Amino acid sequence: MTDAIFPDLKNASVFITGGGSGIGANLTEGFLRQGSKVAFVGRSDASAFVDEMEAKTGNRPLFLQCDITKTDLLKQRVAEATEAHGPITTLVNNAANDERHNTLDVTEDFWDWMMAINLKAYFFAGQAVIPGMRKAGHGSIINFSSISYMMGMGDYPAYTSANSGINGLTRSMAREFGPDNIRCNAIAPGWVLTDKQMDKWATPEGLAKHMERMCLKEHLKPDDIVGPVLFMASKTSSAMTGQAMVVDGGVVVTG
């Protein structure tokens, strides 16, 4: 967990999708340690995690159960978080699903579901928080993308399509809402070894091959993503919008 302190994040109203597991759990803890008022959504009950976070940080997050593919429910949860914590000034669109699949096996229903969780929910969460950000006079939207589409990976074409779309969404929202002092940036992590990744897809051969591509010879952990997200949420990055920040240990080189 980062030792950096961002004073403007204290008491800030933060909303995180998928904030109870994987990278999202570390993000929730990171913002709580900054003194932020954190609300997060997830499909599974996170009551035990909420208690754990309060014990560890002295700051209790608000958990709101939600399937983010249900747009009306997602908007309702944003409204509930706003009622509890005030206008949301940081939105972290973190929830995603990188289920492996082959192009010839994809059905229309699977494609629609992948777009719903990996792209559509990002759009409508952003839409839901923008009126409150306008009222507050500022805001930061942080959309999670991935380096997978930059690498042209073939293991999940629907997922990489959504990831590329997230960059387009990020740039368009940055342009449209910049005059309202609302910033929108993307973060593109490399292969972060969450429990899910280790259980489902990480093999010794795959990890070794990925390590060969990395400039920094240490696999990424969820904590490695927390500092960059806090930076993008804070006024420290106040002149940064419409950008995609790669955090991957040096696998892809941008510019």
TrEMBL record:
GO molecular-function terms, A-Z: 2-dehydro-3-deoxy-D-gluconate 5-dehydrogenase activity
Record's keyword terms, sorted: Oxidoreductase
First-tier enzyme category under EC: oxidoreductase
Any Pfam family: adh_short_C2
SUPFAM superfamilies associated with the record: NAD(P)-binding Rossmann-fold domains
Enzyme Commission number(s) from the entry: 1.1.1.127
Highest rank taxon of the organism: Bacteria
Residue span(s) of domain Ketoreductase: 12-191
Record carries keyword Iron-sulfur: no
InterPro entries referenced in this protein's UniProt entry, alphabetically: KR_dom (IPR057326), NAD(P)-bd_dom_sf (IPR036291), SDR_fam (IPR002347)
Family: Belongs to the short-chain dehydrogenases/reductases (SDR) family.
Stated name of the protein: 2-dehydro-3-deoxy-D-gluconate 5-dehydrogenase
Organism: Boseongicola aestuarii
Gene behind the chain: kduD_2
